[in-house]
């Protein structure tokens, strides 16, 4: 029997970090929780727990926030895509977060363009969770923060070193000898960053849950990929599978793949074992292992499937 317990992370077993990023003390952002599910993630804190460290070619993480809690403006060197597991979320972007915005509901997905500062906040009435996919095994080498975020954090005791590590002056910590503060982006660098409007971003970067349900009526909907609903080549592909498009056939991949239910319970069978996944659970399937996923109960059922590709985990690819 093939035991995959160490490759399944249950929603109820997720270990949060409340000191993951530079805005952990900043009012309005100090109640957020960061989760690193697969890969090292981009946390700046040694307190961050990594659930599965096996390289996949991409990272899987999550952010959990109570109502009105905000994640500050930042950017990554590689792709960042989110789907909403629970709650109602407003995403905003631009130098000051005012260039554009979109509201996402449960099941919606947003493949955020690289090269722009982005942030998000829970605008629902309960604690909410969004799941993240980050390109590359090293997730692009960290986070780039808007200058005002670094300045605000310093006013509340957190200093980010040029080594990418956080130091909490409230705990008596200071920058080690030879380590300088993370430099602020220059006016010239900031001026080169695009400020796309909502109308420019939405068509090729946001997919709505019910649209994907309609498209996945016979075969899985290719959401992110060169020929996907959201055309991109960020080093991974994302498929959306429903009860109508789930296959009974056993299949395998030449690299690890990830299953993430968003609605309903899913039974996963493989050569030597079986399990049931619920929304919020994450399962890593080893390369070469034949498996299948099907809804295990009646009712609504939807699942995100992620697998790496040979494409470089670089900036968002724009179709010709």
List keywords for this structure.
about 325 residues; mainly beta; Jelly Rolls; 2 domains; 7-stranded mixed sheet; 4 helices; 24 strands; about 35% strand; globular; Cupin_2; RmlC_Cupin_sf
Radius of gyration: 19 Å
Helix content: under 10%
Give me the number of helical elements: 4
Order of neighbouring strands in the sheet with most strands: 1-22-19-24-18-16-17
Describe the structure.
There is one protein chain. Helices cover 9% and strands 36% of the residues. It folds into two domains: 5-175 and 184-189, Jelly Rolls (Sandwich), CATH 2.60.120.10; 208-308, Jelly Rolls (Sandwich). The chain has helices at 147-155, 187-191, 198-205, 209-215; strands at residues 8-9, 33-38, 50-52, 58-65, 70-75, 80-86, 89-93, 100-104, 109-112, 118-122, 128-135, 144-145, 158-160, 166-168, 206-207, 221-225, 230-231, 236-242, 257-263, 266-270, 273-277, 282-285, 291-295, 302-308. The relative contact order is 0.18. The strands form five sheets. The chain has a seven-stranded mixed sheet with strand order 1-22-19-24-18-16-17. It starts with 7 loop residues before the first strand and ends in a 12-residue tail after the last strand. The protein contains four helices and 24 strands. The chain is mostly beta strands.
Summarize the topology.
Blueprint (H helix, E strand, L loop, with lengths): L7 E2 L23 E6 L11 E3 L5 E8 L4 E6 L4 E7 L2 E5 L6 E5 L4 E4 L5 E5 L5 E8 L8 E2 L1 H9 L2 E3 L5 E3 L18 H5 L6 H8 E2 L1 H7 L5 E5 L4 E2 L4 E7 L14 E7 L2 E5 L2 E5 L4 E4 L5 E5 L6 E7 L12
Parallel strand pairs: 2-3, 16-17
Antiparallel strand pairs: 1-22, 2-4, 4-11, 5-10, 5-12, 6-9, 6-11, 7-8, 7-10, 9-15, 13-14, 16-18, 18-24, 19-22, 19-24, 20-21, 20-23
